[in-house]
Design a protein that fits this description.
By secondary structure, this protein is an alpha/beta fold. The protein has 23 helices and 19 strands. The chain folds into four domains: 148 residues, Orthogonal Bundle (DNA polymerase, domain 1); 90 residues, Beta Polymerase, domain 2 (2-Layer Sandwich), CATH 3.30.460; 74 residues, 2-Layer Sandwich (Beta Polymerase, domain 3), CATH 3.30.210; 209 residues, TIM Barrel, CATH 3.20.20.140. Helix 20 packs across helix 22. The structure holds one DNA strand.
DNA sequence: GCCGTTTTCGGCCCGACTGTTTTCAGTCG
């Protein structure tokens, strides 16, 4: 069973435990484990049984959960889950997806009315039977019906690129409102997750009235969900939910920290605060009800003895310890990238336009995939001082064999064997990396999803043979790229971010790859795009 | 169920909002 499925199974267990009324801490432990396993770059089965790097070493996973995760990884089954399902109908989990319905009410609905499915719930709500339950009135009943009607459209996550295109213009319009001193987008958007569920915009201002109204009357807004003093929520025409929060300037740092999350990171920070007898909230850091700081984000971290942590790292994946010990990475930055891998199988005008655009952006080198040496030669006149390399993508066979390639500077090996299991895929990639015939190993994808393999094992071989690991920056190929980058970095190998752009607009997508590299703790030395043209040439000659 | 510069037991983040309530439980982020 792959990591993602293990994660969602553990989440199911958490849902059912919650409905049963189990300890909230036990539920939290399962949710934490689900999150941790889903984020692992390599399959659970490749982790060592004991000692460093084993399941038990992961934060929030102890002996018990490690056993259950292994049970799932090996057999695909979990005795506990069967047991839970025998007591509580699985279909109740879907009730939790409706806004206003949590575990307590789901349980009450099941036990009080014998309702197990959304269909039965809808019928009961229409007949007004739900309000027989304690704590449920006509409003909640209506809300549930509305939730059932809208459930298909809700809760869909969109790519960061898509969210950016929708949100940036709105923020620009909000910025114009008089009295707005600071405005930032927080949430997973600021942490640069590859997909976002909703968008949190944070504003420091005296009064909330004008800015909330501005969002409500924005041309992109479709529906108003909430309209209070400090919080305005709307649904855009695209279906994306935007939450706007207004805080006083003296709370802006604390609010930025709080609304940037992640939730797990916030919990960890607040736990540190509790040990120091500090209360940390979106309004500031408090000592015995007296505000001690909160205007700047740095202050919040400083109050618990930490250095400021870049938003991309705030996932409770070791950033807090690293910050305390002064061991945070110096994350690679946009300005440090001086090369890219783009498409070269375009017509002459297309090549010229792409090369000119990259040159204008200050690139030092460009690998052009599928362009002939002649075409490269002709394109050189648009390239200025920029160095152009000829590149090609060659298929890797199921046994790791490399297809024939022409005379080029850069060979990228890409595996297409869709039906390989984790072990065979890992073997094939290792064989390809050892072949001495490729410079870059592309990240394997199939059906729009990354294929699982032992990233650490492959990256180690790549390091030994001077092979780079590709990180595809196209928005549709970013899933799990952060964990992948982290695993590559930890193995001492290097990634290369490839926009695979066919035009200038797509070339700008390299920053989405950069975001994921940063989320993977990568520094300039971990990313081959930071190399000078000369340094890259040297590296290629060795490979 | 996890975890330990107060701990192997007894803790485990914090506040807003909502709808239902006469003081609060449940949900949400």
């Amino acid at each position: 069973m792959d990591n993602e499925t293990i994660g969602s199974t553990l989440d199911q267990v958490a849902d059912l435990l919650e409905i049963e009324g189990a300890s909230v801490f036990r539920v939290r432990a399962y949710r934490g484990a689900a999150r941790t396993v889903s984020a692992l770059a390599s399959p659970v089965s490749t982790l060592p049984e004991k000692g460093p790097g084993s399941l038990e070493e992961l934060p929030g996973i102890g002996k018990d959960l490690a056993g259950k995760i292994r049970e799932l990884a090996e057999s695909g089954e979990l005795a506990l889950l069967h047991e839970l399902k025998s007591r509580t109908p699985e279909s109740l989990i879907h009730l939790l997806e409706l806004p206003g319905l949590g575990p307590k009410r789901a349980k009450a609905i099941h036990e009080g009315l014998g309702i197990d499915t959304i269909e039965e719930l809808e019928k009961a709500a229409r007949e007004g039977r739900l309000r027989a339950l304690k704590g449920v009135g006509p409003k909640l009943e209506a809300q549930i019906l509305e939730g059932i009607a809208a459930r298909a459209a809700r809760g869909k996550r969109i790519s960061l690129a898509e969210a950016e295109a929708q949100v940036e213009p709105i923020v620009a319009r909000l910025r114009e409102v008089p009295g707005v001193s600071l405005i930032e987008v927080a949430g997973s958007y600021r942490r640069r997750r590859d997909n976002v569920g909703d968008v949190d915009i944070l504003v420091a201002a005296e009064t909330s009235v004008a800015i909330g109204k501005k969002l409500i009357s924005d041309p992109a807004t479709d529906k108003v969900l909430a309209d209070g003093d400090t919080k305005t929520s709307v649904l855009l025409k695209s279906g994306l939910q935007v939450d706007l929060r207004v805080v006083p300037v003296e709370s802006f740092g604390a609010a930025m920290h709080y609304f940037t999350g992640s939730k797990a990171h916030n919990i960890a920070i607040r736990t540190l605060g509790v040990r120091r007898k500090l209360k940390i909230s979106e309004w500031g850091v408090f000592q015995e009800d007296k505000r001690v700081s909160g205007e700047r984000e740095e202050d919040v971290f400083a109050s618990v003895g930490l250095a400021w942590v870049p938003p991309e790292l705030r996932e409770d994946r070791g950033e807090i310890d690293a910050s305390r010990e002064g061991k945070l990475p110096k994350l690679v930055e946009r300005a440090e990238l001086c090369g890219d891998v783009v498409l070269g199988d375009l017509d002459a005008d297309g090549i010229a336009a792409l090369v000119s655009a990259c040159e204008a952006k200050g690139a030092a080198w460009l690998v052009m995939l599928g362009a002939s040496r002649d075409e490269i030669q002709r394109a050189q006149k648009h390239a200025g001082k920029m160095k152009l390399f000829a590149g090609v993508v060659v298929p890797i066979g199921a046994e790791g064999s490399i297809g024939t390639s022409e005379d080029v500077d850069v060979v990228i090996g890409e595996i297409h064997a869709a039906d390989l299991d984790e072990k065979s895929l890992t073997q094939a990639l290792i064989a390809a990396a050892k072949s001495g015939r490729i410079h870059v190993l592309a990240r394997p994808f199939h059906g729009g999803k990354p294929k699982q393999f032992d990233v650490e094992a492959v990256a180690k071989v790549c390091r030994e043979h001077g092979v780079l690991l590709g990180l595809d920056a196209r928005p549709a190929f970013l899933a799990g790229a952060d964990g992948y980058a982290r695993a590559v970095k930890d193995s001492g190998a290097r990634i290369v971010i490839t926009s695979r752009a066919a035009n200038a607009e797509q070339a700008a997508h390299i920053r989405f790859g950069l975001d994921q590299a940063r989320r993977g703790w990568c520094e300039a030395k971990d990313v081959a795009n930071t190399l000078s043209a000369e340094a890259l040439e040297k590296l290629l000659a060795r490979g």
